[in-house]
Amino acid sequence: VNNCLQLVIQTSSITDKNKPFEFRINKEQSSFHNRLLQHDLEKNYSGRQGDVQYDNTNFGSSSSITSFPVLQRTAEEKILNSDRLTLERQKLTVCPIIDGEDHLRLLNFQHNFITRIQNISNLQHLVFLDLYDNQIEEISGLSTLRSLRVLLLGKNRLKKISNLENLKNLDVLDLHGNQITKIENINHLGELRVLNLARNLLTIVENINGLDSLTELNLRHNQVCSIKDVDTLPCLQRLFLSFNNISSFEDILCLADSSSLSDITLDGNPIAQETWYKHTVLHHMMQLRQLDMKRITEEERRMASVAVRKEEERKRESHKQTLLKEKKRLTICNIARQWEIQQNRVALVASLNTDKDNEPCQINGSAAYVFPEESRSLDTLLSSAVQGLSVLESHLVEVEGDTLYLYGSGALECLDRNWSVQTATAVVTVSFIFIEFDEIVQVLTKLKTKFPNSVHLKFKETNLVALQQFNALAQVNRIEQLTVDPQGNPVVSFTLWKYYVLFRLNHFNLQKINGIQVTQNDIVMAERFFGILAYVASSELPRYRMLSLLGESRRKQFHYLLEGKGKKSGIGNEEGNDNRAGGESTARATLNYSTKDFHMEKLEEMKERRTLCRTYVENLVKEAADINLKNESLQKLWPQMFIELVRDAVVEIRNKNSYMKLCLQRIADQKE
Fold first, then answer.
1. Which of 102, 459, 525, 615 is the most buried (most CB within 10 A)?
2. What is the C-alpha separation between 352 and 376, in angstroms, rounded?
3. Backbone angles phi, psi at 406, to 5 degrees
4. What is the DSSP letter of 235?
5. Are residues 549 and 628 in the same domain?
6. What keywords tag this UniProt record (predicted)?
7. Domain containing 422 — which CATH number?
8. Which residues touch 275 (CB under 8 Å, ≥6 apart)?
9. How far apart are CA 341 and CA 378, in angstroms?
């Protein structure tokens, strides 16, 4: 028989006292009692059980003795089997009193109804005690059996391991088929070589350190889900864990650290159903010679090593993908929080602007005021929250399949990067998430050049609040589908928003809006609802602006006409759509959209111009007033000034000679 443990017990024999008494233990059988009794014990006693006599009449006067049967053997039986006694299948409910047999070394009580171990404390030379298949509920009465080497208590009713303190020479301990839930009180059994705890109620293997001689441990048919301390057993060679609840290699990781383990069984566990089971075990336990009762070949070891390396690479890649997904999730959460904080700050500023006078509001009958200190503290709180999240990315750009996802306003900058031709042409859908629509408007023109095949736009949490914002989409190259998520886009709550989109973007010939196919009836209804709007807008437009729009429209038509001449006669759908893009009517083109920032810039520019004009006019008025004052003063002073001029001239030329000398003197002075 393969893998058998040979237990050698030195005992005296009738034929040859110097010859050792030998037992052979077959590991493939589930119970120790069958293995350890593969010797001539039953052969010697099978025909002699009738020779054993029980005397219940002459026990002496002690009442404590009269309650137990007394065992008596004939002199011939004692001579033939002086060191052995078997009382198998005798229907015993108690252990009989064995008097005058102090020299016994082997005692067998198999297949009885004994409930308590007793009346054997005087057998201090006992080496082998078999109590298999009884009804014993507690280990007791063994403290004096210091020579005991083999104790078989399988198939009883034990719930706890106890009272083995004095059995330090124990070599084999069989406790299978009981109700034991915990391994305990065996750390002192340093000589124990075989321990059988199969078919119990164990869930964790622990408290087995100190069993330095243990070579075989049987834990089959339990509920074991975790193993500890096995790596501390220096001599353990065989470990049987079949039919338990072990589901992952981490539960038995300590086995990989055992250098002595050569045989292990894990069949019947959830882990054994995994595809990586055998390869992983062989890779981490290179010292194994058998797995699940099958010998391991070198080829299997080599294949296991290769398979484990591949599995580790797969796990690393899977772990990497998991980390990337988690990072993406955290980044999106951070962007969403920043978006929420931004929206709360905007709402707070708007509420403060509408209530500048800090008017009280009644709450439950009491007046409550909004103080500036409170608003500043809330703003500080929001800022600190943003700073706390700044360790994460504030935007995310991801290309998944044919869709480009842009999270956060910072993601719009990615449109300026150098995209590969393959990626740029593969993008069909562009999704904007957690980005202000006014910021998106500024980069819509870039979609024409960066992603020429993009035909589907998605908006989620972009603050689409007014129908006129859809006017900005007219500057895109082409659109076949438009998706506006209700989340973060209040404009979707308007009943006629889809019809306005169809009216304003009629030149794109939209196919779907929010996943719903556009019908001809929808187009007719859109024209009926909003057709007059274009004419009203164009009639109110200044003449110079109308001429500019007409020129732009003609330029586009001429541009597409030139493109059409340069192409072959068989144009595809894309060319047809582009041609339609050039056909945007001038009346609809008057319906445009200015972003808030652009509007504010225009207002600032108009304000500056108004101020400049006012200053210029004021300066002109002031200068004209000064000139008028000077003119009025001159008119008043001129008559007197003229008289004085005439008088001075007459006086000077009255003496001609003197006047001439004076003039010559002045000329001479000027020359000098």
1. 459
2. 11
3. -120, 115
4. T
5. no
6. Leucine-rich repeat, Repeat
7. 3.80.10
8. none
9. 11
Number of domains comprising the chain: 3
Which segments within 440-511 are labelled E, that is strand? Answer: 456-460, 481-484
Predicted local distance difference test score (pLDDT) of residue 38: 39
463: left (phi over 0), alpha (psi -120 to 50) or beta: left
Domain span including residue 637:
602-671
Give pTM, 2 decimals: 0.47
**Least confident span in 8-22, 171-185, 294-308, 444-458:** 8-22
Which residue carries 């629509």 as its tokens? 437
Residue 3 burial (C-beta neighbours within 10 Å; 0-12, 13-18, 19+) = middle
Listed residues 310, 325, 345: the one ending a domain: 345
CB-CB contact of 173 with 149 (8 Å): no
Chain Cα centroid distance, residue 412: 27
β-strand pairing of 84-86 with 106-108: parallel
Please report the pLDDT score of residue 392 as a whole number: 55
Q: Do 323 and 404 sit in the same domain of this protein?
A: no
* pLDDT band at 395; cut points 50, 70, 90: confident
Q: Tell whether the torsion through CA atoms of 68, 74, 75 and 77 is positive or negative.
A: negative
Question: Within 13 Å, how many C-alpha atoms sit on residue 27's CB side?
Answer: 24
Q: Please tell me whether residues 305 and 440 are part of one structural domain.
A: no
Two structure tokens written together for 436: 């202000």
Q: Is residue 328 part of a domain?
A: yes
Alpha helices in 253-391, H assignment, sequence order: 277-284, 298-354, 372-388
Q: What is the pLDDT of residue 172?
A: 94
